[in-house]
Amino acid sequence: MIEPAFSIVETVCRNVKRWRADDHIERWVGSGLLLAERQFRRVQGYREIPARLTSMANAVSKKAVAEEVKVA
Known about the structure:
Blueprint: H1 2-13, H2 22-37, H3 49-71
């Protein structure tokens, strides 16, 4: 996901002929990232991610407990 954003930043920064200071670079990169942000799309099912993480953490902890019981 980050590669297309940097590609747009590269395209925007290609037009700059003279870099004056560090903050000048940051402004142009920020401008390019804001331009790239318009093309971002939301991940489908993003609202379910916290529930999925919780269920995965529970499954991993149950598996670890089951393995400890087998060893003992």
